[in-house]
Structure formats: C-alpha cells, structure tokens
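User: Structure tokens for both sequences below?

Assistant:
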Amino acid sequence: MVEIKSLSLESLTACLLAAGEKPYRAKQVYQWLHKHLAESFAEMTNLPKHTRDYLNENFLLSQLKIEKMQESKIDGTQKYLFSLADGNFIETVLMKYKHGNSVCISSQVGCRMGCAFCASAIGGLVRQLSAGEMLEQVYAVTRKIKQRISHVVIMGSGEPLDNYDEVLNFIKMISDQNGLNISQRGITVSTCGLTPFIYRLADEGLQINLALSLHAPTDEKRLKLMPITKAYPLNEVLKACQYYFKKTGRRITFEYSLINNLNDSPEEAKELKKLLSAMPCHLNLIPLNKVKEYDFTASNGKNIQDFKKILEKYQINVTIRREMGSDIDGACGQLRSNANAAR
C-alpha cells in the first residue's frame, strides 16, 4: 500500500483519476491531510463514502505515537520521542521564540555519518524516513500545541542530504500553499558536508537556508570529529557553499560546537578567520550538549565569550546559540538513544 502523506498533489491527482475520481477530489484529500491535518480518512466528511472506502483500502496514513514528551522548565522547549509504525524511535523538538514556533525534525532513524560527539550516530543508520513521516512530525506538534509553526529546521537525527529525495519532497510539501504553507525562507537544512548534494540542492530553485556543521577550522582537526571530512575536505565543501550562495542569494550558516581543549583556542579562532573571511556567512557557536557515551565536555562560559570576541575582532559575523532545553535531553539523538538503551 502507498503512504498517502508522501504523495505530492500531482501524484495524488494521478492516483485518484486512475480510480475514476473527479480531479477536484485530489485537492480535497490533499488539503484534509496537509492543511486540516486529518488523522483518519473518516474525518474527510465532504468526500463520498465510496471515496473514503477507496482511500482506506489503497493507502496508508502515516501516524506517530508520542512515547514521551519532555518540557523545559527554563524556556518551554519541548522534546518529543515518537515511535513509528515499525516500532523505531525518532525525536522532534519544539522551540518557542518571540518570532514564532520552530520545530526541529529528524530525517532518518539513526545516522551513518559517525560524528564523534553526536548521539544520533550511536547504532548507525537504521532506515530513511519518508516525506510523510517528516511531515507528520510537524503536524503532530502542531496538533499538540494548537499553534502555527513558522520555522522548520531539518537538524535532528540523521543527515538530511543522505535522504535527499524524501527531504526535497518534504520541503516542497511543507511549503505548498495547499498545506501549511510555511515560507521556504523559514526552512533550514543542516548538513555535515555531502558536497555533491549541496550543488544539487543549489540548483533546485528553492529559497531555503543551508547550515553546514563545521566544528573545526582545518581538515586535520575536523577529521577527528567528523569522518565525512575524508571524503569531502573543507576546501571542496566551502566551494560548494559558495556555489549555493551564488545560486540562491541565501547566506550560509556555519555551526560550530565548542568542545573544551579541542577546538576552542585562540589559534582555532584565527584559523576560522582564514577559512571564512572571504565568504558571506554567519557563524553560530554552540555550547556542546553533553552525551554520556562520549568523553567530550563543553567549553566553559568564559572561553566561549573570549572565542566570540576574537572572531568579532576579525569581523566574522558570529553569535552564540541560545541554549534551549538545557534541563532536558537536549543533544540530538539523546532521547532516542536513551529510549533504545531502556528497551
């Protein structure tokens, strides 16, 4: 059976036309799924019974079950542990800002990139998520809080560009005017640096934001943290980022997790200047979330501030990411990893 939430309006129209339905029925079904966030075909009350029966018999409606929800007492951040139909776990985070509600979603069950400080990599890649399963993360949170989501970050468990086709389908559907119609400028894709797919994404004609997980200013240091550096060294990745900026006009964000005595010295700040000074970009410094399976610890507050001041002297556009959900399992993949361990 076909998972209906992963079908574009065009694909859904083709399916229903082949079944003898009128063309307008597809738009009705699509809007029930993606605008009204229906959880069953029975809710689609303006459809004839025979159409609802056909949908029940021929399509799957992806559902997520909330296994656990943690809410920060500090800032209201909510972290959801969802179980999928096959029993796998994924996690999703709701962050509340003055400018609106932002949801950080997972794109894979697990991850094969093997970054040395990330809980998502524990256990490797289990499987890809479908576009429908990604959409349902946003929909489930929307139903729960009964408020509009204005921003979506594909920065949870998994490497989005390692699931390129489904992620691209998700972006087009979440920004579709027949669905939630979230502005593409409010959508961010984060990658560890799969260079061929950065070029491909740049040519899609989208207006989404691109974030690169940098975490070190040289190949030698980055390779200790991120094995992907062996396949795609920094000079190649930065060329792809420059191409993305030229094609889209969207400034690149570089994510940099500060790790005590590893990548937080004045020397690293100077190397970052050499790396980034010629490129329109934003550097986001991230206080590391501790993952119990790894020995890395976060830089202390003074080192983080000093690192930022040095970069500002070098005229690098830099901010320190606001710590969200610091009193809950904040690190990517941590809630899922704990749930798998408990199981």
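Moving on to the next sequence.
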Amino acid sequence: MANKIKIIIAGAILLMLIAGFFWLKSVTKDNYISLGTSEAIEPTPTQIQSIKDIGEWEFLSISAEEMVDTVRKGFFSNDELVRIYYGTLRLGIDMKQLAPDAITVNGDSLEMMLPKVGLLDKDFIDEAKTKSFYESGKWSPKDREALYKKAYRQMIQHCMTKENLEAARTNGEAQMHHMMQQLGYKNITIKIEK
C-alpha cells in the first residue's frame, strides 16, 4: 500500500510538472529575450551637446613678432618710437556655433559640417612682452595705442593667410575624424565651412 501511495504521488508530481511546463510555454510564447548588438549608432542629444561643450577647439597656433614704428616730424629734430610686439594667434572653431543639423548619421556612417575656422582670441598680443626698441621724444598713451593697433593689423595680415587657414581646417578635420572613429563610426566625412 505504501508503494502504491508513492507511485500515485510521483505520478501526480510528474503530471504537475508536465502541466506547469505547457502552461509556462503558453504564457511566454510571445515574450522572449534576445541578446545581440546593433550596428546602428545614433548621435544622442547628449553626445551633440558634449561636442558643443568642447567650446573653442584650437587647430593651429601661430607665434608672431612685429616691429612697428612711427615718426613725428619736428622743426629741429624728429621724434621716433619703435616697439616690438609679440603675440600668439590661435586658429580654430567655436563648437558652440555647431548647427543643429550639422551631424547626419546613417548606420555606421557619419557626416559632419563644422563651423568656419577663425581667430579664437582677439586679444592675442602679449603686452607684457612688448619692448621699446627705440624711443626719442615724448609720446602720449594715444600715440602708443595707435602703434599697438598698427601692430595688431600687421599680425592679422601676416598670420591670417589662406595657407594658415587651410592648415587649420586640415588639422581640424583630422582631429574630428579621429574622435568620431573612437566613438565607433566607420565611414566618416568631416567638412569645415570655408
């Protein structure tokens, strides 16, 4: 009798397991978990904001030295002021000017149009390094300011050349290309406005 009870209990347990299996299968037939990777990479608003948050991105730094002079004609003698100005002009882009539609992604391909390369800092003359090379006569602060502005214009003229702007654009495209490769993009087209 004890063996019969054991067989009945084992049979009941087996029936419950089979019923539970079919019930579980019917409940989860439309629900499943799949593991895999997605090849699509989409720039999120956070990533775009992170790119904009870079702020100013320097691609070329040019050290400049300008000697400028001025002469004031006098009745008995001429007054002369000669000064040497030093500066560093930084060329690059301001990522805050990145247009909302500047980044286009299709699968693992990315196209990006960056803002125009320009002068990042308009106060590039280091006045602490400015030296008077030769000075005769009396010169007012207004005269010195005029000489400063002359040096400023000459540095802009000598450093903001087509060749330097093109070198900065080339450096910028290469640096951004490398950064996008690190984010996982395979086909990358980077352009900087001219």
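User: Anything stand out in the second?

Assistant: The longest strand covers residues 56-72.
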